[in-house]
Each structure stands twice: as C-alpha cells, then as structure tokens.
C-alpha cells in the first residue's frame, strides 16, 4: 500500500540522516535553569530574510514572526511610525511600483491575516479521523519520560544515567501501557520490536511512511518543533559538545522517538488517513516561498525599526555638555547590559570627574569557575564560547580548606534534610511534626522579608595560575578592548552585575548573559586582581600601557533589582585610598536612589523607589525588575558620543575608540562576540513577544520546575523555553517593543566590511536583516547604513529610490 501511494523515490540512508541533522540545526538550544541565558530562537533561520523565515516557521510551528497588524496600525495613527518610515521600508523591500505598493500596504493594515496552520503530522490526521487527541497523548508520554531522563538531581528516585535517549526510551516504552489504554493497540509489543539504534529507526519509519528526500528536512523540523523545549535541550547538549570539538546524538534520538510514534499511529489509522497523508507529503515537499502577507508583515516590521532608528539618532545628535578634561576622579567599567545604562547615567550626573565605560560583563576572562565548597563547574562566559582557563573561590590555604570542608558538610546535611521532608515515606509525618516550626518562615516570606542570597564567596583565583606572560597578555587584551590604555584615575572599579531574587525559576536569566547566566562578580574580581599585580603592571608598561602607582583597581557587583553596589574592597585593602572609597560609597548610594526613582516609573503600579528594595525579597513578586525588556540597539563608540543622553535603558553601550585600534582586532572582537551576545538577547525577547506560544516560557503563575532543567506550564506538557510572559507584558499591554537590534559602530566602513568578509556567519545576520548595521562619522552621527553585499547608503537617505539604486561601495 505504501509503495503504491509514494510518488517519489525513497532516498538513500545517508540522505535521511543528513536531513535529520540539518533539521536539528533549525532548533534553538535551551540552557538549563541554573545557567539560563537568552538565546536567538531564529538561530537556524539566519540564512533567510524575515519573510522566508515566516514561511518556514508557519509550516513547521504555525506561528507568525511579526506582531498583529493592529499593533503597527496603532503606531502609524500615533505618529510613531511616519510616512518616511513606511516609504523606506517599501524601498528596502524593492517594491517595483511604490505608489501601488503603498496602497496595498494601507489596505493590508485593515485586514488581519489568520495565524498560519502548521502542516499536519500523522498524529494530527489520526486525531481528526478518530476523535482521540493523539498529539496530546504522545506529548504527555514523551514529556513524562523526558522529565525523568533529563533530570538533574531534582527527582528523589532518579533514573539511571549514562545511556542514550533512544535506548532508554525504547526500554521504557516496552512496559508503558498508557498508549494502549488511550487506544493505540499493541504499542508495547511494537516498541519491543523496534530497531536497536535511532538511525535504523529513522530509516525504517521513513520507508514505512513513504517519505521522499524532498519532504524530509521540513517534516523532521516539524516533528522537532512539536517537542518544544525537550528538542531545545537536545540542541543545547549538541551545542555544548561541539564547543569541545565533540558531538552529541540526543537530538537525533528525540527525532527517532517522535518518528516512531508517527509510525505506530499510522499502523492503526492508515486506512482512514491514507489520502490525507498523501496530500500532506506533497505539501512538505513544496518549495518554501514567502506569501504576500509574509512580505507585507516584513515591511511593517522594517518600518517600525526605521522609526526607532530615527528617534535614537535624533537623541544622539542632541547637544550635550562636553566632559571636563583632566584626570578622572573615578573610572568605572560596567557590563554593556542595557540596565547598566541607567545607573551609568545617574552616576556620571553626580560629578564631572566620573567616567564610565562599557564592556561585555565577563570582562574578557572566559573561565570555568568552581564556587566555594563546590565541585560544580560554572561557565562564566558567553554561551557561544568555550572556557579558556579555570578558577575557584578561596586562596587554597589550610584555613580556607577547613572552611571549605565545613561548608560541604553543612550543604550535605541540608540536602539530606530536604530529601527527608520530601520523601514518600516521611513527608506526611514531617508536616505534622515540623509544620509549626515553619510558621515563622512562611510569615516572613509571605510578608516579603525572605532572605536574598548575595554572592559572598572568598576572592576567586585562577587555578592553575597562568604564567606571567599569559597574565600580561590577558591584561593587555582586556584593557585595549575596553579602550582603557591611558589617563587612569586613582580608583578604577570593575563592576559586574547580578540580580538577587527569591522564588524565581528564571533568576539566572536576570543575571549576566555574558557570564553564562551567572552574576559577574567572579570575573570582575579576577580582573581587578590581575590589574593590581605589580608584575603584570610592569609587563604592561613595556607594552605601552602605563598604569600609575597610585591607581587602585577594585571589583564591584551592581545588583540590578535594587540598584545597590557591593564593593569588594577587602580583596585589595588600601589605607591610602580610604577617603576615595568613602566618597565612592556616597556616590553609589546617590546613584542608586536616582536609578530606582527612574525605574519605578516603568514598573506596573509605579511603586515607590523604596518599594524596589523589597521586590527582590518578595517570594510572590512576578516582576522584580524588567530585565532586558526594551533592548533595541547596540552602540560601539567613545562614551563621549552617548554621555549625558537619556537612552531609557534600551541600548547596549560598548566603549570603542577606533584610532587606538591599530589592526582593528578590537573591532573584530566587538562584531563577532559582544554584538552576537546582544543579538541573542534582542531576538529572544523579540521571539517571546511575537510568538509567545512557541518561543516564550508562558505564565509564571502556572510554572512548575521539571527535572531541574526548565519549566512546564501547569502540571505537565512540553518544556517551555524563552522569556516568561510577565517579563514582556505588564498585564494590560506589551512592555517590550519587538525590534531587530540596530548596531551603530564608530569606525571606518572599510574596516567594518573587512571584518564581515572574514566572518560570513556574522555577515549573513546583517545581509538578511536580523540585525541592522550603521557606521557613525567622526562626530558620532549616524552617517551610513549597511545595505548588504558590502555596500552602504546614507543612514536616512533610504526614503529615496536613488539611494537604493546607487549604494556606496566599499
């Protein structure tokens, strides 16, 4: 029967597995909760522009990748998007007849297209034919198994580890009678006869379902998307393995499991759905092309982004006071995180002698870190990179070793107590006997007085310690990357950031994305120690970086939930700087008050600035802060270009002085590392806003932590990745404006283009407009817009047809 309905040749085995691997790379990774970072959910679609990605994701996930048209229409009516923005977007879309295209655009704004319907799977067709929710049944069974398989020590009775996912699932399925109770006859016996390997299972299912080479990649992508966060965890494991030049088969195993379900369901319902499945296979084989609606939605999105670029350029063009020359009283390096922009602006307003800098929050030290009394390796660096060195908390002295052992014993006792009170045998007796003891804690937490754990480990150290040449080279690279090579202040503070909250599964997402979802204290303290090292300073002097003898580097941690600053002055005590540090503390207090007052205006209910200090301790608080909500642009330029301008906590700010970058190595680092990290953040918030049902984490009020890896919404279902709903919506309206990030770099266009030529994977993000690229002129004005193909046009000349026809080549 199956050979009879197949109208294409069945492909060779190697082609099927290659199609599976290509489909796997269309899925974004999902980091575990303890180190969750924002991830570009469109990572696999970077080879296509937005309208083609919309067509692909409409087929495999049933989502739109832009906002409803009413959202754009409201902004046009309010004047936020004007005619020039719409005209520029139409020109960018190369509309052959622009007046006609504008009329079609205006008409399209009045018609809301329906959400795409994903191509049906066998399970979908069987559900329609039988009335049984087979997609729901298989989702429940796969999730039940996956929560056990991927568990990271949350479960009291953990499943055995060390076996492949497919092998483990196959053994489990042989004894699972739930599918048969739901109506899938002989499923356990069917599972017992499955092939030994996932690859064999894939090939067998491909043949049984009559699939041809033209159907496979899209069909496999469709099945993986139906697994939600479980497939994303598989992609994460592959990502981590490839950072170490290895590989991981989990995602292929998950695809095999999902395919086996398709085959099992088809065995039972083939006679009922044969015709529909024949049509569906034809649809999977069709070439992916964008529809008129996809193109129109893409134009509207482009117009919204053009409007935001126009407004930001106007803010940066405004006149501001020129910074005072002379030696700075304080230099403070912050993470480029958009939340730092508000605090930096507040701090600089207190004294003209305060200068701030921006640099990716891991401060160029990509370490695998072990906290005090722990053997867990924490990767304190961007998720795109592999650690280059190791570090641990504590100085390794005999006294520190004793403290370490005592802390470990305490942690073991705490874990044993926790298991005792949760165990099936003792849990009810525990509640009866110990319940009254917990009344005080429950009241304290319920009234918002819960204890917040702040990073307080002993000072970190490199382990093993790098040799002198390596330390000098590391220090030089970091200082040059920050454009901090001369005119040092007496106090230079390296400030990481973190967000201490309680009862928040996504707490790590509020930490530093450049530090792998951890706070930035470790990297800041390591760098400050490195730059205070006399041997390192001597080596820097030989390389042209003269650090004055009276300059002290101190590490700090900026808490973004409370806008308080912890200063690690004990790492490097200095009596000579006591007065400077006293003044520094007063500045921090004043800047924190100013920042809280500004942030309070943005939060729901407009809490008082004092209330912000309590939000981090409130275990019922679903919005302790907005995180990176609102991020829309990245600027790499001297701080003088942005100082004194209110950027509303929406811009990543990286210090860069191109005239001090002799070989443009720093420019290359900025374009290929910090900008990519920021783009992941921007596009994660974008995806969670435009497609929350697929790329968002759902409602915090319904979250249940599963396996320690992620959350499900309610009491079961698929693992959810992305940003929670409460992080982008205030209950009445969206707070995040979904815009693809605009990148502005003050550097020669030739140098920028050369970097893009050397990094085609980065260049395609700009060519396909997942990111917008601008070059600033010598006055810091938005002068040039990257038009793709190494060509540039005037930054806001794109409303002219002539600008499109005659780009400026580099």
Number of strands: 20
Strand order of the largest sheet: 11-10-16-17-18-19-20
Shape: globular
Low-confidence stretches: 1-11, 801-810
Please give the alpha-carbon distance between the first and last residues. Answer: 60 Å
What secondary-structure arrangement, pairings included, does this model have?
Blueprint: H1 2-5, H2 13-24, H3 50-61, H4 69-78, H5 83-92, H6 98-109, H7 122-130, H8 134-149, H9 165-173, H10 178-182, H11 187-192, H12 198-208, H13 213-225, H14 229-243, H15 250-285, H16 292-317, E1 330-335, H17 338-348, E2 354-359, E3 367-370, E4 377-380, E5 389-393, H18 398-422, H19 427-434, H20 439-446, E6 460-462, H21 468-481, E7 491-498, H22 521-532, H23 534-542, E8 552-559, E9 564-567, H24 578-600, H25 609-615, E10 633-637, E11 651-655, H26 665-672, H27 674-690, H28 692-695, E12 696-698, E13 703-706, E14 710-713, E15 723-724, E16 742-745, H29 749-758, H30 760-767, E17 772-776, E18 782-788, E19 791-794, H31 801-805, E20 808-809
Parallel strand pairs: 1-2, 1-7, 3-5, 7-8, 10-11, 10-16, 12-15, 16-17
Antiparallel strand pairs: 3-4, 5-6, 8-9, 13-14, 17-18, 18-19, 19-20
Helix pairs in contact: 2-13, 3-13, 3-16, 5-16, 7-15, 9-15, 12-15, 13-15, 14-15, 17-24, 21-23, 24-25
